[in-house]
Recover the amino acids of this structure.
């Protein structure tokens, strides 16, 4: 058993921005900062004003948010829905938490295509969800990425 195994029944929490309380928002921003800025050494503007329009998904261990993503509606980031800021606390990785969040988001908008800007090293991971590369490799915040599309119709 993983030393930091999830202490709940894999409950997925889901809220729109205006429904988040201050503690939830603070924990989300803290987790994103710890992983994307500190761990990945990427200095970027996390506050991009897309959070207010997004649906936020997360999982907790007791009272701590340990895995998170946001689902951005069409027309904000891409013409399709977008999944972004997929992140898991380093102590809780390799337990399938992000996989559960991604699948829940895809299920919630079944029949609507989803586009992501995925880090290149995660290409094969995203392909397991039905995403396929639709761009050349490019740098986003000095990290190699691919734009990937999922028709989200469960036929892929």
């Amino acid at each position: 058993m993983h030393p930091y195994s999830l202490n709940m029944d894999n409950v997925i929490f889901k809220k729109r921005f205006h429904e988040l309380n201050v503690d939830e928002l603070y924990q989300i921003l803290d987790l994103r900062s710890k992983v994307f800025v500190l761990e990945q050494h990427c200095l970027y503007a996390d506050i991009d004003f897309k959070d207010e329009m997004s649906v936020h998904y997360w999982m907790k261990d007791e009272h701590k948010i340990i895995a998170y993503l946001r689902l951005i509606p069409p027309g904000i980031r891409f013409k399709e829905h977008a999944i972004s800021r997929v992140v898991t606390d380093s102590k809780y990785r390799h337990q399938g938490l992000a996989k559960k969040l991604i699948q829940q988001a895809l299920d919630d908008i079944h029949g609507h295509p989803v586009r992501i800007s995925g880090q290149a090293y995660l290409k094969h991971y995203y392909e397991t969800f039905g995403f396929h590369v639709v761009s050349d490799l490019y740098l986003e915040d000095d990290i190699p990425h691919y734009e990937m599309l999922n028709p989200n119709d469960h036929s892929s």
Notes: The helical segments are 22-39, 97-108, 123-127. The chain has a mean pLDDT of 92. The CA atoms of residues 4 and 109 lie 31 Å apart.
